[in-house]
């Protein structure tokens, strides 16, 4: 491992006391030196994630360095006064936690250059118990303040900080947390980076009229606003917050990524800094060794060849948008305005909704990070027969919308929802952003309003699926992955879902026949399962493969076919406790079908990185083949099974 090319030993471990609200010249100089050192380090090691292709986030950690180094000095000045944890409800600011762990001696500085890499224990969101020095799991955006309230209740004599942002404050959780903190007079100090930037835009533009300061004041908090880049004013306001009884919000206005040419004030600053911008920045700061290290990084590649799949790969999350645009293109503008409304939750670029936004802005609503309210708005629009709302966000956030989904069903709403980033593939953000519990959406009663869950296997099936279900009534949930997927081929080497293929809702599909049993899979696990099937056949093990693109509907004919085979293996990237496999065995038994049965799925916390998540869970082709062989060992007569 190369030596970290920025000397973190230059960090000055100064002490500050909130009873002195004015900085001395020496303290000011030390803080400014620490701020610049930390910002240089953050630009460098987050850019290693960009260079390796695992992404990351630079802007949030970079922005909040001034308040963090002040907090660090305060913790050191009077440790008994505080709960000395840098609680942060903007989970993508993981770089803050890792840098402070290194500065405090818990993590070797060299490890920072493995930022977000597989098995590095430095995932895109910090996880308690995984990374040395990390003292909490941040989870998803806007989830920490309510939790910190509880920590404050447990520590009534101490001051607690919670770093926030104008993005995290859009979540409804924070409104509830604000009311409780005021009602209980909790000694929680919110330090909010208000940079007017989120992933897809500027809150001042898509939520005009909304003011974080006025909102929090309306809840009853003391609010202290100011320039986050003015170190004297920032320090004074933080001290005032500490010396004020009860909850206080210190709101810091600054542009995103101040001082970084090419990023300042831009939405691009939310994500990871590009290598070029980082190199230019570091060289301008005299950090040539760091710049040279970035130039020499080579991104690792997954060289695996997947049998049974084509060489064309595409991201289904973007194909969703293309398919919807094609369908809406056959409607008149008046008809689109009358019947369709698309509501985004600040993730239009990630979910493919940007394609719709660009093509038909007249039906598109750019909204904030308010998944529950946005889904309900889409459902309300789709309450009337013939109208439908379209909603999109990450699959991990589906869990936040369960009650709203129930209400939409009870009101017979028509909603087409796209939940991207399903499963675990390419998920360097790691465990808190895994889309594992998507079958929770199927939470209605047997006689409830129609609810179907779809997970197309490749780009061609995604298009065919949307063509088939777009105008159907009811709740329709379409899932896709963050990763690209290849096209599935038939036994003649042609696109399985090409040509005259028509998607039929509720029908399972035989991808490969087999005489010794079947694997049942879907989504991004299907092409991996197909690779395993092809390799098993080469070894003389004749198992087949079934695609189940409609996850929650039983195909009775197919159940009989596979249920009468010697063995069934369910392969999925969903949660082993809540996924398809947790239901499928019961479906078989209810029909008197008793093949040898096994189920492999995501069952442990992630390892970071990208494709490495699949072998980590044992659901890659090698893991699938091992499980098939284990099942067949338990049924030595499987070779006599006839194809039905």
From TrEMBL:
Cofactor(s) it depends on: Mg(2+); Mn(2+); Ca(2+); thiamine diphosphate
Record flagged with keyword rRNA-binding: no
UniProt xrefs under InterPro entries: PDH/Transketolase, THDP-binding, Transketo_C/PFOR_II, Transketolase-like_Pyr-bd, Transketolase_C, Transketolase_N
Transketolase-like pyrimidine-binding domain ranges (all copies): 314-487
Keywords: Thiamine pyrophosphate
Top-level taxonomic group: Bacteria
Pfam hit, one: Transketolase_N
A single GO cellular-component term on record: cytoplasm
Transmembrane segments: none
Matching PANTHER family: PYRUVATE DEHYDROGENASE E1 COMPONENT, TRANSKETOLASE-LIKE PYRIMIDINE-BINDING DOMAIN-CONTAINING PROTEIN
Family: Belongs to the transketolase family.
Protein name: Transketolase domain-containing protein
Native species: Methylobacter tundripaludum (strain ATCC BAA-1195 / DSM 17260 / SV96)
């Amino acid at each position: 491992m190369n030596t970290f090319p920025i000397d973190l030993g230059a960090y000055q471990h100064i002490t500050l006391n909130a009873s002195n609200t004015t900085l001395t010249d020496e303290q000011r100089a030390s803080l400014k030196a620490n701020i610049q050192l930390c910002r240089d380090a953050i630009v460098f090691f987050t850019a290693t994630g960009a260079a390796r292709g695992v992404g990351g986030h630079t802007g949030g950690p970079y922005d909040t360095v001034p308040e963090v180094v002040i907090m660090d000095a305060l913790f050191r000045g009077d440790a008994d006064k505080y709960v000395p944890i840098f609680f942060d409800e903007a989970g993508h600011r993981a770089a803050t936690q890792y840098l402070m762990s290194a500065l405090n001696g818990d993590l070797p500085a060299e490890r920072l250059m493995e930022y977000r890499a597989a098995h590095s224990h430095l995932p895109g969101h910090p996880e308690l118990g995984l990374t040395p020095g990390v003292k909490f799991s941040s989870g998803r955006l806007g989830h920490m303040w309510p939790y910190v309230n509880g920590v404050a209740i447990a520590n009534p004599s101490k001051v607690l900080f919670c770093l926030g942002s104008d993005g995290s404050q859009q979540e409804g959780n924070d409104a509830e947390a604000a009311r409780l903190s005021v009602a209980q007079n909790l000694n929680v100090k919110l330090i909010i980076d208000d940079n007017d930037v989120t992933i897809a835009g500027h809150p001042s533009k898509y939520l005009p009229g909304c003011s974080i300061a006025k909102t929090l004041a309306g809840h009853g908090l003391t609010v202290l606003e100011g320039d986050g880049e003015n170190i004297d004013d920032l320090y004074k306001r933080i001290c005032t917050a500490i010396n004020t009884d009860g909850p206080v919000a210190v709101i810091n206005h600054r542009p995103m990524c101040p001082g970084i040419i090419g990023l300042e004030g831009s939405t691009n600053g939310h994500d990871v800094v590009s290598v070029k911008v980082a190199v230019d920045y570091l060289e301008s700061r005299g950090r040539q060794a760091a710049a040279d290290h970035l130039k020499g990084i080579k991104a690792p590649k997954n060289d695996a060849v997947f049998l049974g799949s084509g060489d064309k790969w595409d991201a289904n999350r973007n194909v969703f948008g293309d398919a919807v645009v094609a369908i809406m293109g056959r409607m008149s503008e008046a008809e689109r305005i009358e019947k369709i409304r698309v509501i985004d939750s600040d993730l239009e670029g990630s979910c493919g909704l940007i394609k719709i936004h660009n093509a038909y802005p007249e039906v598109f609503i750019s909204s904030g990070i308010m998944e529950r309210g946005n889904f309900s708005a889409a459902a309300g629009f789709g309450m009337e027969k013939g109208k439908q709302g379209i909603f999109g966000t990450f699959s991990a956030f589906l869990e936040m919308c369960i009650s709203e989904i129930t209400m939409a069903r009870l009101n017979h709403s028509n909603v087409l929802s796209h939940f991207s980033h399903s499963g675990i593939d390419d998920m360097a953000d790691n465990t808190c952003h895994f889309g594992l519990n998507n079958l929770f959406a199927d939470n209605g009663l047997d006689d409830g309003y129609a609810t179907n869950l779809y997970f197309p296997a490749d780009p061609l099936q995604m298009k065919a699926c949307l063509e088939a279900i777009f105008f159907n009534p009811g709740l329709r949930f379409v899932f896709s992955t963050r990763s690209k997927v290849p096209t599935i081929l038939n036994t003649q080497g042609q696109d399985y879902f090409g040509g005259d293929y028509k998607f039929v809702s509720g029908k399972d599909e035989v991808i490969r026949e087999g005489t010794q049993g079947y694997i049942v899979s879907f989504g991004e696990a299907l092409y991996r399962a197909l690779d395993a099937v092809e390799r098993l056949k080469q070894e003389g093990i004749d198992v087949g493969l079934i695609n189940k693109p409609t996850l929650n509907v039983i195909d009775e004919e197919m159940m009989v076919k596979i249920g009468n085979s010697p063995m069934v293996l369910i392969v999925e990237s969903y949660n082993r406790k809540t996924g398809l496999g947790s239901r499928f065995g019961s479906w078989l038994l209810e029909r008197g079908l008793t093949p040898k049965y096994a189920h492999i799925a995501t069952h442990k916390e992630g390892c970071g990185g990208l494709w490495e998540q699949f072998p980590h869970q044992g659901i890659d082709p090698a893991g699938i083949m091992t499980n098939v062989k284990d099942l067949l060992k338990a049924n030595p007569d499987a070779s006599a099974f006839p194809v039905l």
